[in-house]
Design brief:
The structure holds two protein chains of two kinds. Chain A has helices spanning 2-5, 7-28, 34-37, 53-61, 87-97, 115-143, 153-182, 188-218, 226-258, 264-298, and strands at 39-46, 69-73, 77-82, 105-113. In chain A, a hairpin with a 3-residue loop joins strand 2 (69-73) and strand 3 (77-82). Chain A is α+β, with helices and mostly antiparallel strands. Chain A is 70% helix and 9% strand. Chain A has a four-stranded antiparallel β-sheet. Chain B is of the alpha+beta class. Chain B folds into three domains: 2-16 and 275-447, Multidrug efflux transporter AcrB transmembrane fold; 54-131 and 262-271, Alpha-Beta Plaits (2-Layer Sandwich), CATH 3.30.70.3400; 134-257, Gyrase A, domain 2 (2-Layer Sandwich). Chain B is 53% helix and 18% strand. Chain B has twelve helices and 15 strands. Chain B has helices at 2-24, 38-41, 49-52, 71-88, 121-129, 196-208, 245-257, 274-327, 334-363, 368-400, 403-433, 441-447, and strands spanning 46-47, 54-61, 95-99, 109-116, 134-139, 148-150, 156-158, 164-170, 174-181, 188-194, 214-218, 221-224, 236-240, 264-272, 331-332. Chain B has a four-stranded antiparallel β-sheet. A four-stranded antiparallel β-sheet of chain B has the order 8-5-11-12, covered by helices on one side. A three-stranded antiparallel β-sheet of chain B has the order 9-10-13. In chain B, a hairpin with a 6-residue loop joins strand 9 and strand 10 (188-194). Classes of the chains: A alpha+beta, B alpha+beta. Chains A and B meet through helix 5, strand 4, helix 6, helix 8 and helix 9 of A and helix 5, strand 14, helix 8, helix 9 and helix 10 of B. Strand 4 (105-113) of chain A pairs antiparallel with strand 14 (264-272) of chain B, so a sheet runs across the interface.
């Protein structure tokens, strides 16, 4: 089997990508959205022409809100990012945006989140990530409780978890790039995307491991090498692994290209998660399994 | 054989019926929606704030002065009062929820207020946060200093405020307010009934001011200034004049809703304009349709006849899910629509696993009917295992999530659960019905897939 013969190359590639993904926030930094750090986001669209950015910045600076970030959006709109605003502050922001009634605009959305809500959400997100990870680890351990020869079941579980880590880290790295080049911000949907990837991508690994389990059971009489069985299982299941992911990737891509603006980065992250999830179940999980069996024999 | 055929027809009919229900009960799709029965009118899709436009407010309740046992009661009465105030505002389907403090939700007692369609958040906050201030004032002594302003045309305006002085009587002593219509003028009036203490105060004030004016102030603004004819001992007063019926009704509501049991302060505000919401709905629907078509194209090209079956099963799956969205009801958000669209992709996964298995059995030498039976039974373990992890994630997301996340978790979780059912029940019956195609060359071609001939 091609994949298993060159397993060191694929393992090397995956490890390199994972290291790059881990390093990426250190190099590019990561923008945290107001969901987590608190703050206000106001989106307006001007009826006629929008005022120039410098002109608006000058007006906004007189408000003394600290740092105010002005981002052009669409043809005639701006997104204004500030600290979280009270009612009077919100009103004076809107007045400043009208530049003494020279321009008229409508406010598309206003979102102000106090720092305590941000802290609360951060804690919730961490709890959720831990819970989902634990649930999936237990599930894997349960699913493979009956497989023990020649590789013991906890090793299947460990490998599945390593694969999951890979599937989550790579989309995270992609997100850091999106954040750097397109201004994507770490928000609630980012956390949901990570958790969904955890849930979805583990299934591909499980499908292939299931196959290995079945083939091991069927071959009690003729003793084939473990690598041969894994290779055979891979050949039997990679088409359906790709096919099942492909259908999900198809809908995710339409969600990215045609769907609501709010879920665009979300869809892109999930697409990456599905892609790497399928990739890793074929090119990472199975080679790791063969390696584990080889190490075990050397001992 | 016959049994399968009957089952197939029943499933098809039911599926069509559900699709028809979804279509007919949707105002955007059904041109004759107004003429439909009330049953259908009851079930349009429920759209979340990010799709319908509206305001989402989170308040923190200051419970520091309460003992632990009082917290629940106070929060509930807080919710009731705010619900009443919101209802005065005439918002359709407002949601006012308590979020108690806890390990998951954080240390604050919070109140979450969703106001669909309300985009003037300042106005909304005013209504929620403010107790109307009702004051009764009496004429100031004649020698009191008068305040006058002269505008630029030289007109002199005497300030009314300086002509009246405050009394002890305020809205605190109010028992209830009712809306009535003046029998002669048909103008709306607001009738007030004071409690015992208030009645005594009012009797005293009217007794002292016979022949003089008493001014009734609402939120610092004079609403009427009737002249007292005689002492009023029964604690009843009437505010009349300058109301529209709607205003009067609102005022009655305010006065009755009373003061808040605990002080609240705003933690976060979110307003979404209707335009943004509409755009998101359109984009979501477009993405769902295109996504479905792409998946259908893939299925028919790659899996041929079984692919066609899968498309029909998928259509029925979508009808079931959309019906559930309407009946439960599920509040749809942009993230929720994303969850639904993803579940379309996941729903065919089970079919794919089954078809690949059938193909394998055929290659191993089985005839088509046997291949179908074996394919189903051998694929089931994989289907179950690969869906459990998604379901687990959805459950945890739903449990911990904010409303945004809940929407996603619910649509995704429902999608995964229903898709497992539809794969093992619907697709199986359809495929078994098709076993009559036999095992000829054409049949084998139709049941093959991919690039094989």
């Amino acid at each position: 089997m091609f994949v298993l013969k060159h397993k060191k190359i694929f393992l090397g590639l995956s490890i390199t990508l994972m290291v790059l993904a881990l390093l990426s926030p250190l190099v590019f930094g990561l923008k945290v959205g107001i969901d987590f750090k608190g703050g206000a986001l106001t989106e307006v669209v001007y009826t006629d022409e929008r005022p120039g950015q410098n002109e608006l910045n000058a007006a906004l600076n007189t408000l003394n809100f600290g740092s105010v970030l002005l981002q052009p959006t669409g043809e005639n709109g701006y997104i204004v990012k500030t600290k979280n605003l009270s009612d009077p502050e919100h009103t004076s922001l809107l007045q400043a945006l009208a530049l003494e009634d020279k321009y008229s605009f409508s406010e598309l959305s206003f979102n102000s989140i106090g720092p305590s809500v941000g802290r609360e959400l951060t804690r919730k997100a961490i709890i959720a990530v831990v819970l989902v990870a634990l649930a999936i680890i237990f599930f894997i351990a349960f699913a493979f409780r009956k497989v023990s020869r020649p590789v013991s079941s906890w090793k299947y579980g460990l490998i599945a978890v390593l694969t999951l880590l890979h599937d989550v880290l790579l989309p995270m790295g992609l997100f850091v790039l999106l954040s750097h080049y397109f201004g994507a911000e770490l928000d609630t949907l980012f956390v949901v995307a990570i958790l969904t990837i955890l849930g979805l991508s583990v299934s591909d690994t499980i499908v292939i491991f299931d196959r290995i389990r079945e083939n091991l059971r069927d071959q009690t009489n003729v003793k084939l090498a473990f690598e041969t069985i894994v290779g055979k299982s891979l050949e039997q299941s990679y088409v359906r692994s790709i096919a099942t992911s492909l259908t999900v990737i198809l809908v995710l891509l339409t969600l990215f290209f045609f769907g609501p603006a709010t879920t665009k980065y979300f869809a892109l992250m999930l697409t990456a998660g599905m892609f790497f999830g399928t990739y890793s179940s074929i090119f990472l999980a199975s080679p790791l399994l063969v390696l584990a069996e080889q190490w075990q024999r050397k001992k | 054989m016959i049994k399968n055929l009957i089952f197939s027809i029943v499933i098809l009919t039911l599926g069509t019926g559900l699709a028809f229900f979804v279509w007919q009960s949707e105002p955007r799709l059904n041109d004759n929606f107004e003429a439909e029965s009330s049953f259908l009118k009851k079930y349009p899709f429920r759209l979340g704030l990010d799709l319908s436009g509206g305001s989402h407010l989170i308040y923190q309740a200051d419970i520091s002065s309460l003992s632990a046992g009082q917290v629940n009661d106070s929060m509930e009465s807080l919710r009731d009062i705010i619900e009443r105030r919101v209802n005065i505002f005439g918002v359709s389907e407002p949601v006012v929820q308590i979020q108690h403090s806890g390990l998951i939700s954080g240390a604050d007692e919070q109140l979450i207020v969703d106001l669909p369609g309300v985009t003037d958040v300042e106005e909304a906050k005013k209504i929620i946060g403010q107790t109307p201030l009702l004051e009764f004032k009496t004429e100031a002594p004649k020698d009191a200093p008068q305040k006058a302003t002269v505008d630029k045309d030289g007109k002199v305006t005497l300030s009314l405020d300086a002509q009246f002085v405050s009394t002890e009587l305020t809205g605190r002593y109010l028992q209830k307010a009712t809306l009535e219509f003046d029998q002669n003028t048909r103008e709306p009036t607001v009738n007030l009934q004071f409690n015992d203490e208030g009645s005594k105060l009012f009797a005293q004030i009217t007794k002292d001011n016979v022949g003089k004016m008493i001014a009734i102030y609402l939120d610092g603004e004079m609403r009427s200034s009737p002249v007292v004819r005689e002492e009023i001992p029964n604690g009843q007063a009437v505010i009349s004049g300058s109301f529209t019926p709607a205003e009067a009704k609102q005022l009655v509501g305010y006065l009755n809703s009373g003061a808040l049991p605990v002080p609240i302060s705003i933690l976060s505000t979110k307003t979404i304009g209707a335009i943004l919401g509409d755009n998101a709905v359109n984009a979501g629907v477009k993405a769902a349709i295109i996504g479905f078509l792409l998946v259908a194209l893939f299925l028919i090209l790659w899996y041929r006849l079984p692919g066609l079956i899968a498309i029909i099963a998928l259509s029925i799956f979508i009808s079931i899910i959309l019906t559930l969205f309407k009946l439960l009801p599920v509040t749809l958000t942009a993230a929720g629509i994303a969850g639904f669209i993803i579940s379309i992709g996941i729903a065919v996964d089970a079919n794919v696993l089954i078809f690949e298995r059938i193909k394998e059995e055929m290659r191993a030498g089985s005839k088509i009917p046997q291949a179908i039976t074996a394919g189903f039974s051998r694929a089931w373990l994989s289907i179950r295992d690969s869906n459990i992890s998604s379901l687990l994630t959805a459950v945890i997301l739903f449990w911990f999530g904010t409303s945004l996340i809940k929407g996603f978790a619910l649509t995704l979780g429902l999608g995964v659960a229903v898709s497992m059912l539809s794969a093992i029940l619907i697709t199986r019956i359809f495929l078994k019905t098709l076993s009559f195609v036999g095992d000829g060359k054409l049949a084998r071609f139709l049941f093959s897939s991919g690039f094989s001939k």
